[in-house]
């Protein structure tokens, strides 16, 4: 099998590339702007990497789509602060650039595995989000935070329509707060410059207080990247056509904790298990901050986001295996050791 991964140097792309090389005999054709996260893959004979921009290297991408069996367009802006700061960039990359790739997959009859997002559910009132039945609820237009969610949702709908009316073979997967080594740069000091887990680790490393937007009462289901990649490998294998034209939540409903609890857990783990950073961790205070003050105008938050994962279990045989403590320790080992 030939697999095309666009955005191979990203968080998901790098872990997926390593897993494919370690567990299968598939060929990987890959593109990204940088290569620091995939250094262990670059010399592998089944890893064919090109440094490039998906918005510019269009001829290469078209040729690779024709050559490959499965296409994973993983390039996206996925940092919440940027949804408010640069919404047009989010739309242009997450929707427009990827739409062109989806159309080529339909043209050449290739299977596209597209990263949707848990954010498409928005402020859905359901206690569990069901891929096939939950309503997708977002806020007013002046809350620019929703441009990421709606860009992804619209492409979900376009892909579904291509599947129903043009015969496109696809799978949509919705990651719920995947985390692990190589998530973001913890040394980026800019507030909101990375996702919440790496933001907090960076705060602790720098001896800074941790800002909890709206008190940190929001709850999220954190999912270790190894579990997520296991689901992706099952989707790519598509045993008995189990993933074709399906939508899957990929999350860990058993690890539903508040953002405040996440911060407290990180401080506790570092204090107890990482002596070189224990004093810094002990000095960190949790500070409540208003969302508008932290992100600026245009932000709106969600209090709860719990995935129903029955479909992934029944169709793929997948269930999350890694506990929050185990996953956090692996993540902290990467960044602190």
Automatic annotation (TrEMBL):
Task: Outline the extent of the NAD-dependent epimerase/dehydratase domain.
Answer: 3-251
Record-linked InterPro entries = Epimerase_deHydtase (IPR001509), Lipid_A_modif_metabolic_enz (IPR050177), NAD(P)-bd_dom_sf (IPR036291)
Superkingdom of the organism of origin? Bacteria
One matching Pfam family is: Epimerase
Q: Which Gene3D superfamilies match?
A: NAD(P)-binding Rossmann-like Domain (3.40.50.720)
Q: Which PANTHER family match?
A: BIFUNCTIONAL POLYMYXIN RESISTANCE PROTEIN ARNA (PTHR43245), UDP-D-APIOSE_UDP-D-XYLOSE SYNTHASE 2 (PTHR43245:SF13)
This protein's name: Nucleoside-diphosphate-sugar epimerase
Protein's organism = Aquicella lusitana
Q: What is the lineage of its organism?
A: Bacteria, Pseudomonadati, Pseudomonadota, Gammaproteobacteria, Legionellales
């Amino acid at each position: 099998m030939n697999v095309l991964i666009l955005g191979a140097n990203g968080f998901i792309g790098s872990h997926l590339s390593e897993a494919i090389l370690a567990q299968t005999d598939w060929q990987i054709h890959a593109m990204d702007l940088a290569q620091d996260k995939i250094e262990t893959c670059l010399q592998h004979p089944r890893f064919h990497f090109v440094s490039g921009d998906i918005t510019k290297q269009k001829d290469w991408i078209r040729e690779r789509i024709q050559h490959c069996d499965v296409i994973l367009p993983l390039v996206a802006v996925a940092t919440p602060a940027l949804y408010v700061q640069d919404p047009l960039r989010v739309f242009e990359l997450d929707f427009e650039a990827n739409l062109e790739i989806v159309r080529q997959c339909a043209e050449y009859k290739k299977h596209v595995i597209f990263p949707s997002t848990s954010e498409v559910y928005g402020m859905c009132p359901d206690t569990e989000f069901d891929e096939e039945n939950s309503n997708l609820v977002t806020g007013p237009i002046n809350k620019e935070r929703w441009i990421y969610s709606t860009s992804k949702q619209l492409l979900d709908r376009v892909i579904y329509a291509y599947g129903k009316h043009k015969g496109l073979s696809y799978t949509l997967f919705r990651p719920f707060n995947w985390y692990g080594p190589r998530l973001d740069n913890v040394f980026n000091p800019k507030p909101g410059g990375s996702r919440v887990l790496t933001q907090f680790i960076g705060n602790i490393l720098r001896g800074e207080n941790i800002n909890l937007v709206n008190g940190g009462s929001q709850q999220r289901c954190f999912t270790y990247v190894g579990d997520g990649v296991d689901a992706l490998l099952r989707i790519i294998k598509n045993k008995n056509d189990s993933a074709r034209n399906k939508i899957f939540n990929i999350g860990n409903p058993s690890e539903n904790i508040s953002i405040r609890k996440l911060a407290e857990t990180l401080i506790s783990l570092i204090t107890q298990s990482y002596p070189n950073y224990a004093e810094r961790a002990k000095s960190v205070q949790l500070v409540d901050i208003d969302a508008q003050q932290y992100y600026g105008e245009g932000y709106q938050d969600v209090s709860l986001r719990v995935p129903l994962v029955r479909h992934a279990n029944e169709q793929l045989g997948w269930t999350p295996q890694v506990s929050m403590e185990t996953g956090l320790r692996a993540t902290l080992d990467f960044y602190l050791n």
